[in-house]
Design goal:
Length: 461
C-alpha cells in the first residue's frame, strides 16, 4: 500500500480551499494547505468583503442628505480616503487571522508558499523547493481579473485588485465593463465624490439579469450623475502627462485620473503543473470537473472559481462541503448549482433568484408576471426620487414561482430569504396566503394578487 505525506493537500487558501482543509482535518485526516498570497482568497482579501465595506462608505453622503427630511440638521462633512483604507485593511487582517485560526484549530498544516503539481500525487513547495505527496489533492486557486492585454495601454489601467489600495482617491475614473464588478465600483466611486464614467460594449448593463431591473438600475445611476456609455468600447489608453486619455469607438476621447478594467475574470491555472499531473483544462484555462468536482485524474478535485462554473463564494464553500461528503463520508454528493440567490451591491441594490423573465419565457409555455414599482416609505420624507421594483415570475400551469427579482434598498437581504422560498418550490398561492409585514417594502412580495401581464409562447399578452 502506497504511503503519502498527507491524506489531503489543498492548493489555494480561499473560501473553498480553506473549508475543505479545515473540515477534512477536523475529521482526523492529515491535511496541509498552501497559499502563496494571503489566506481568505478573493472574497475576503480583494473581493466581496472589502467591496461591501466600500459600498457602506459610499452611501453616507446620501444618508446625510436624507437626514434633513426627517428633521435632522447635519453639519459639514468630509471624507478621508486614507482612513477608510486603513480601517478596511485592519478588518481584512482580522478576518485572515480567523481563517488561519480555524485551520490551526483543526490541526491542518498551514503553508505560506506557492504549490505546484509534479504529478498526480506529488506537490512542489516553491519557496523551499521541497516536494511532498498526498493521497488526495484539491485545487482551489480561484481566479483573477482579465487584464485585457489586447488593449493598447492596458498596463496604465487598474483592476478591482488595485482599486482597494489606491494611495489617493481620484477626481475622475473611467470603468470598462458592464458586469456586477464594474457596476458596483461605479457606484462606490461616484458615492465617494469621484466623477465616474462607465463604458460597456453591450446594449444594457448587467447582461444576465432581468431586463426590468437592468433598465431600472441604469436609470437610477444616470439620475445620480454616473455617465453610462453603452454600445461602446475602449480602443486605446494613453498618458498625456496630466491624466489618462481613453480613446473610445463611439464617444471620442475621455480623460480621467484612473482607468479601471472590469472585463471579467480568468481561472488561476497557469504554471500549476496541471499538464504534468494530467489534469484537463478548457480553452479558457478552467479546470474541467465532473458533477462531483472531480477532475479527469481520479484523486484530484477542483473547487470554486478555478472551475469557472459559478463564481460566487458561497458556491465554492458548498462545493467544498460536497467534496467532504463524497471523499470522506461515503456519501457521494453533487453540488447543487440550481436556483442560486445572488445580489449586486449597486445603489440601489439588486437581489435576484431563479429565472429572468426572458429565460423563463423560453422554458415555460405560459407565464404570469407580477411586477410592482413604487417609491419606498423612507423616500417620502427624504425627497429622494429612487423607485423600488419587485417582480415575480410564475409558471401559470403549476403556479410555481420560478423567478424573483428586486431592485432597491436591502434587496440582497430579501433575496437570501427568497432563495429558501424558491428552493423549496413554493407556489404563488403560498405567497398569497402569507401575511404581510407592514409597513415594509418586502410586503409587496405577498400582496401582488393579480398578474401585471402574461407571456404565452414567448409573446407578452
Amino acid at each position: 500500500m502506497t504511503s503519502y505525506d498527507y491524506d489531503l493537500f489543498v492548493i489555494g487558501g480561499g473560501s473553498g480551499g480553506v473549508r475543505s482543509a479545515r473540515v477534512a482535518a477536523s475529521l482526523g485526516k492529515k491535511v496541509a494547505i498552501a497559499e502563496e498570497y494571503r489566506y481568505g482568497g478573493t472574497c475576503v482579501i480583494r473581493g466581496c468583503v472589502p467591496k461591501k465595506l466600500f459600498v457602506y462608505a459610499s452611501q453616507y453622503h446620501e444618508h446625510f442628505e436624507d437626514a434633513a427630511g426627517f428633521g435632522w440638521t447635519v453639519g459639514a462633512s468630509s471624507f478621508d480616503w486614507k482612513k477608510l483604507i486603513a480601517a478596511k485593511d485592519a478588518e481584512i487582517s482580522r478576518l485572515e487571522g480567523l481563517y488561519k485560526k480555524g485551520l490551526s484549530g483543526a490541526n491542518a498544516e498551514i503553508l505560506e508558499t506557492r504549490a505546484e503539481l509534479i504529478d498526480a500525487h506529488t506537490i512542489r513547495l516553491v519557496n523551499s523547493g521541497a516536494t511532498v505527496t498526498a493521497k488526495t489533492i484539491v485545487v482551489a486557486t480561484g481566479g483573477r481579473p482579465n487584464l485585457h492585454e489586447a488593449l493598447p495601454g492596458h498596463e496604465l489601467c487598474i483592476s478591482s485588485n488595485e482599486a482597494f489600495h489606491l494611495e489617493e482617491l481620484p477626481r475622475s475614473i473611467v470603468i470598462a465593463g458592464g458586469g456586477y464588478i464594474a457596476v458596483e465600483f461605479a457606484n462606490v466611486f461616484h458615492g465617494l465624490g469621484v466623477e465616474t464614467t462607465l463604458i460597456y460594449r453591450g446594449a444594457e448593463i448587467l447582461s444576465r439579469f432581468d431586463q426590468d431591473l437592468r433598465r431600472g438600475l441604469h436609470e437610477a445611476m444616470t439620475a445620480k450623475g454616473i455617465r453610462i456609455l453603452c454600445h461602446d468600447t475602449m480602443q486605446k489608453v494613453s498618458n498625456d502627462g496630466d491624466s489618462l486619455v481613453v480613446e473610445t469607438l463611439n464617444n471620442g476621447a475621455l480623460k480621467a485620473d484612473v482607468v479601471m478594467l472590469a472585463l471579467g475574470r480568468v481561472p488561476n491555472t497557469e504554471g500549476l503543473g496541471l499538464e504534468a499531473a494530467g489534469v484537463a483544462t478548457d480553452k479558457q484555462g478552467a479546470i474541467v470537473v465532473d458533477e462531483y468536482s472531480r477532475t479527469n485524474v481520479e484523486n484530484i478535485y477542483a473547487l470554486g472559481d478555478v472551475t469557472d462554473r459559478v463564481q460566487l463564494t458561497p458556491v465554492a464553500i458548498h462545493e467544498a462541503m460536497c467534496f467532504i461528503e463524497t471523499e470522506y463520508k461515503n456519501n457521494p454528493t453533487k453540488p447543487d448549482h440550481d436556483t442560486i440567490a445572488t445580489a449586486v451591491f449597486s445603489q440601489p441594490e439588486i437581489g435576484t433568484v431563479g429565472l429572468t423573465e426572458e429565460d423563463a419565457a423560453q422554458r415555460y409555455k405560459d407565464l404570469e408576471v407580477y411586477c410592482a414599482q413604487f417609491r419606498p416609505l423612507k423616500a417620502t420624507l427624504s425627497g429622494r426620487a429612487e423607485k423600488m421594483i419587485m417582480k415575480l415570475i410564475v409558471d401559470a400551469a403549476s403556479r410555481k414561482v420560478v423567478g424573483a427579482h428586486i431592485l432597491g434598498h436591502d434587496a440582497g437581504e430579501m433575496a437570501q430569504l427568497l432563495g429558501i422560498t424558491l428552493k423549496a418550490g413554493c407556489t404563488k398561492d403560498d405567497f398569497d396566503r402569507t401575511m404581510a409585514v407592514h409597513p415594509t417594502a418586502a410586503e409587496e412580495l405577498v400582496t401582488m394578487y393579480a398578474p401585471s401581464y402574461r407571456i404565452r409562447d414567448g409573446v407578452r399578452v
